[in-house]
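call fold(seq) -> tokens
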Amino acid sequence: MTPFLSLLVGPYGQAFALMDEYQFLPTREDFKEFTEEMYNAYFNKMGMPAERLYQVLPGKQGKGQKVLVVSKTEMEEVLKAREFIETTLSNNPEMKDATDLEKLNYFKSQFSILFRNPKNSNE
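ret:
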């Protein structure tokens, strides 16, 4: 897969869509690995997970409507996508002191093609 195609539909594309839905740029500290009890509940309902699972800490989910649960691989891709956004905006003096939501909205306004369903940045 070409790097550009990965930005659209690959792991980055999925991560951008997730950040767009939840309207925040998560950091590693925003994720917490499942507890033993959570793994047991998951196993009883869904079967054995293929890899470690993480959820976003309560209060860190932005505007998402459901609890965000991701695999370790998905978490790493989201963190890489955040780094990509931060690097892309690093030379823009207007974004120096911007909030995560302001950065996300600005990035979306400049690179709307990377988002499956661009939302109004004024929401």
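DSSP finds five helices and three strands in the chain.
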